[in-house]
Amino acid sequence: GYEKLKAKVADNEVYITEILEKKTEVEGKKQIITEDYEKLKSKVADMEDQYLKEKQIIIDDNQNLKTEISEKDKVIIKLTSQVEKQSQNEKQILNALFQNDVLYTGMMYHEEKKIGYWRAIYSVVRDLEVLKQYISTNHPNAELETTQLQLGWTVDPDREPMELFQSTIDHFPLNPLYSSCSMSVYAEIGVAKKPLHCPIKLTGIDPSKIVYINKSPPALPPSM
Q1: Which UniProt keywords apply (predicted)?
Q2: Beta 180-187 vs 209-215: how paired, if at all?
């Protein structure tokens, strides 16, 4: 009976040893799990801190962006108001200019003095009908034109400089000579064979304009 009891005790000791080894193994794994958990917990805490920091940065950036947008909106509103005010001022100035603006009409007409010689006159007036009446009365044979010298043609201005002043134009026809520019046009008989198309550029008016002296050469005498 003693031997059986001794054998049973030995078996129990082996069993206890195995249990202790398993306990030690389990405790080791538990320690590893505990350490991993603490590491994971610490990592989660760090991630939460990082998230909160980044969240605060985003909130601050959004607030700064809203403030910047608000300031820019204020600047845009101010600039828009200034532009609108300037536009209104410009419109008022233009309206005032247009209201005070005076329309003048110019007309080129020619009067033949002798064969091969004409007087080309450009007159500027406020009332075109007054000019037409003046021309029909004082220059009944004049040729009217509503709007490079060729060989044999000569165009000489009757005065230099050829300037017209508003103060004299407004009193037409009291002083027709000073509200008109006249030029002597000569055609050398037998030499001037092509029509004359002489441009005269008008400066100092708005808009600028070019008028032309258009004449045909005189007919050749029968003997020529």
Answers
A1: Coiled coil
A2: unpaired
